[in-house]
Amino acid sequence: MRLILIIILLLVSGAVWSSAGKNADLDKPAPTAVNLATNISSAFSSDQPTGDTQQLLPHLRCIFHKINRDFTVQVMPWRRAYQDVKSNRIDGFFTAIPMRQIDPYAVLSAPLVLENWYWFWRSDMIAPESWREGYRLGSILGSQQETWLEESGYTVDSTANNLPQLVKQLRSKRIDVLLADRDHFYQAIKELNADAGQFSSRFFRYVPLGVYFNEQFLNSNPQFLVAFNRTINDCASQGFSVSDYEKQQIRELLQRKIERWKRLPALEALLIARNSLSRRLSREEIEALDKHWITAFKNSDFSYAIRMTDQELSAQLREIKKQSMDVITEIIVTDARGLNVAISDMTSDYW
User: Which Gene3D superfamilies is this protein grouped with (predicted)?
Assistant: First the structure.
């Protein structure tokens, strides 16, 4: 899947932006502008924007232009945005992770941006495998990280209005660790003229973010979300690529574990047997199997894959995934021709 890594906003006078478009059908009244809210960047403020790095999302402007709708953007704290969507004072807010407290009255779009979340702590500390217990966690008040931490069972011990304030708490040992987007963190370090060598970090996860639209707006505009989601990739200016630094972090995190997993008791014998079978399949037969699997997946018919998910190796993969504590989201073992042999979860395709 191709995702955008751009979170660039343009600071203009006042706290409201607008994007004007033209309605193609002059005989019909133009639909009202979509009223959105944002926090600019929770890296720096839970209230008004600061600094001169904010620029209007060209991706969002492109989407609305293509679907022939106008939109406005108001800057407000996250918690106010959540309440204003719930009370129908605004049509949506961005960017957002899936949030249980928002889901009853709003729908999240397809991913619009991707953030790289890291744990950050002082370099004089010995980092544990998990920060879940026994460590003081800090977060930006109302931020996506605070929401995720609380919904995932972490205890947030201290909050701040922005990331520079949170970094100061980390430096002064009021907290032990914080979770933040990597680019945002180093931007905050630059704002503080701080030494990046004071801190250590560990990659945690990639986090796709979208736009939450309230249900009343979507009910009044039944084709809007389909058109919006369909246009996201059309407006993408670049695809997601993992940096060399992140590749190395992932290798260091997983390589030793993968070497152990390669010695799972059932793995070698199962691969030998499946390679023997798949070697005899024609290209047409493989494509037919894949098409059958994809159709079953789209129809939520998992009976086709039950023999694969119920086998011993798949059960072992699910246990490995569970023990990873969200670092691993899916494990697939394939044969030499790329066909599923064992899966931790139902996959969207077979080949």
Answer: Periplasmic binding protein-like II
Listing DSSP states for 288-325 in one string gives HHHHHHHHHHHTT-GGGGHHHHTSHHHHHHHHHHHHTT
Which region among 9-13, 112-116, 141-145 has the lowest average model confidence (pLDDT)?
Answer: 9-13
Backbone dihedral region for residue 231 (phi beyond 0: left; psi -120 to 50: alpha; all else: beta): alpha
103 with 211, same domain: the answer is yes
Domain containing residue 173: 116-205
> What is the sign, positive or negative, of the torsion defined by CA atoms of 154, 138, 107, 223?
negative
> Could you tell me if 110 and 143 lie in one domain?
no
CATH of the domain at 134: 3.40.190.10
Q: Dihedral of CA 311/313/319/320: which sign?
A: negative
Q: What is the pTM of this model?
A: 0.57
So what's the pLDDT on residue 104? 92
C-alpha–C-alpha distance, residues 158 and 139, integer Å = 7
The label of the residue with tokens 């957002």 reads 96
